Amino acid sequence: MTFKLLAPVALAALAVSGCVTPVGPVEVTRFHTPDISALGKGAIAVEPDPGTDGKSLEWQSYQAAVQRQLALLGYAEAPAGQGAQVAELRLSRGTYQPERSGGGPVSVGVGGSTGSYGSGLGVGIGLNLSPRPAQQVQTELGVIIKDRASAQALWEGRASFAVSVKSTLADTALGAPKMAEALFKGFPGNSGETIEVK
Q1: Given CB 3.0 to 4.6 Å as the disulfide criterion, which of 129, 134, 172, 182 pairs with 164?
Q2: Domain range holding 188?
Q3: Is residue 114 predicted with pLDDT exceeding 60?
Q4: Nearest 5°: phi and psi at 124?
Q5: Is this structure's pTM higher than 0.90?
Q6: DSSP 8-state class, residue 105
């Protein structure tokens, strides 16, 4: 009786867990000058890195997310071309297909044996029935904070994040805030250190 009551619950739990897309951590690396006294204060504008299209809707979503994090750190928002500091933002996104674990979908094995009662030869065919891994979206976000007058780099951060195309975080509107928050977590961070933010 107990088994009959638990079985539907267990099956429901398995069904729900099968729909949840695993989310990997955001890998973040930061660098900064020894003197960090200028960081987190004054007016700053978020502008496209040279060679980056700052007019795309995707870039603008990340711009808004980065600007929000900078405001939380104590910066005042400045229009493009103004402000004592500038945050140059670069963004790249692409999809890739992970390889199936355990090799190809079909494997063939041949085995033989001899003994007191004769010998035998067997051929086995193995089928890898695991589903093909879902395509992944790889996003890389980079921000360099510079002193506008001298163009000296004061801080640089890079964040990398891979998630299934089926995940809600593959959508820019949801992924941008997560990446920006991870990039500036513990700002300015330890220079040269790479961390994983879950």
Answers
A1: 134
A2: 23-98+130-197
A3: no
A4: -120, 140
A5: no
A6: S
Residue 105 lies in a domain: no
Q: Mean pLDDT throughout 84-110? A: 74
Dihedrals φ, ψ of 37, to 5°?
-65, -25
CATH number at residue 161: 3.30.160.150
Q: Do 188 and 28 meet the contact criterion of CB atoms below 8 Å apart?
A: no
DSSP code per residue over 136-196: EEEEEEEEEEEETTT--EEEEEEEEEEEETTSGGGSHHHHHHHHHHHHTTTTT--TT-EEE
What is the share, in percent, of the chain residues with pLDDT greater than 90? 53
The residues that bridge with 161 in the sheet, in sequence order, are: 139
Mean of all residue pLDDT scores within the chain = 80
DSSP bridge partners of 108: 125
Residue 139 CA: distances (Å) to CA of 11, 28, 51, 52:
35, 12, 17, 15
Within a domain: 4: no
Q: Are 153 and 131 in contact (CB under 8 A)?
A: no
In a domain, 174, yes or no: yes
Q: Could you tell me if residue 36 is inside a domain? A: yes
Percentage above 70 pLDDT, the chain? 70
Q: How confident is the model at residue 104 (pLDDT cuts 50, 70, 90)?
A: low
Phi/psi for 177 (5° steps) reads: -60, -35
